[in-house]
Design a protein that fits this description.
Layout lengths: L12 E6 L3 E7 L6 E8 L2 E6 L10 E5 L5 H10 L4 H11 L3 H7 L10 E13 L10 E14 L5 E10 L5 E8 L5 E7 L2 E4 L5 E4 L1 E6 L4 E6 L27 E3 H12 L1
Parallel strand pairs: 5-15
Antiparallel strand pairs: 1-2, 2-3, 3-4, 4-5, 6-7, 7-8, 8-9, 9-10, 10-13, 11-12, 13-14
């Protein structure tokens, strides 16, 4: 809702995903084609390079740990730069994880151990119609099967971790995946578009559009495969592809160090 998104609402990009933890994502400047942002995750560490931007102060090289939370750092940025767009931008980058994309494109598998149980239910949603002529009164009631994933906590009860929405209209289709945090609050909302044939062999049917929304961090990204037939599936990559180096000599921001400093200040 601020910073680079104000100027670059739509951009081309390239994404490489290998396993649900490794990703290399490039977002390019429209028309020019040079890189705007690059992101990688090797499964443990993530790195984000803001290469070209509206303002020089946004050009940074962020690094952090996938498993870490940076709540204190986000709050510090908001307080220090209250009312300043830079504060909002730092807060968003402190929340940004390349694995938000991997969880959407290559979701984590279901679990078969005793720590998880799954429950099924049904629901209906009032949604806009899918006709070409859009109208505020063109609404449909769509039915869904819900599959909830519940994880046992230390006290012996269960909390929700994920919810899968399966569209019941026509054939069964995964329409949405929702991920919840440790408190049961919605963390990520992933909507999957209509499926199309991918690769030249047409052996894979996948969503041509994936929208990732992070309500707590107030940002949303929509990925659209422009030419599904040219998507490459099944290729392996060297580990270095998923480790971004600061070859642009950007000012570096170690989120782990900053989070530790913010923690010490609050003690």
């Amino acid at each position: 809702e601020s910073g680079i998104s104000e100027k670059y609402r739509t951009a081309n990009g390239q994404v490489i995903v290998e396993t649900p933890s490794k990703i290399n994502l490039k977002i390019q400047i429209p028309v020019v084609g040079s890189d705007l942002v690059q992101m990688t995750s090797d499964g443990e560490k993530f790195r984000v390079a803001v290469i070209c931007c509206v303002d020089e102060k946004y050009k940074k090289f962020f690094s952090g740990t996938n498993a870490n939370e940076y709540t204190n750092l986000r709050e510090k940025a908001k307080k220090t730069l209250s009312g300043n767009k830079e504060g909002v931008a730092i807060s968003v980058f402190a929340s940004l994880r390349p694995q938000h994309f991997t969880d959407a494109l290559l979701m984590q598998p279901v679990h078969s151990n005793d720590d998880y149980i799954y429950t099924q239910s049904e629901t209906y949603a009032d949604e806009p119609g899918t006709t070409k002529k859009k109208s505020p009164i063109a609404r449909v009631i769509r039915g869904y099967y819900l599959l909830d994933e519940l994880k046992k906590n230390g006290e012996g009860d269960y909390r929700i971790t994920r919810r899968f929405w399966f569209d019941r209209v026509g054939s069964i289709r995964l329409a949405k995946q929702q991920v919840f945090d440790d408190k049961g609050v919605l963390e990520t909302d992933i909507a999957y578009g209509i499926e199309q044939n991918f690769t030249e062999t047409k052996g894979f049917s996948l969503p041509v559009q994936v929208q990732i929304t992070r309500p707590q961090e107030r940002y949303s990204v929509k990925l659209t495969y422009q030419v599904p037939s040219e998507v490459i599936i099944g290729k392996s990559y060297e580990d270095g592809v998923f480790i971004l180096e600061n070859k642009w000599q950007l000012p570096e921001v170690d989120l782990d160090k900053q989070a530790e400093q913010a923690k010490l200040l609050n003690q």
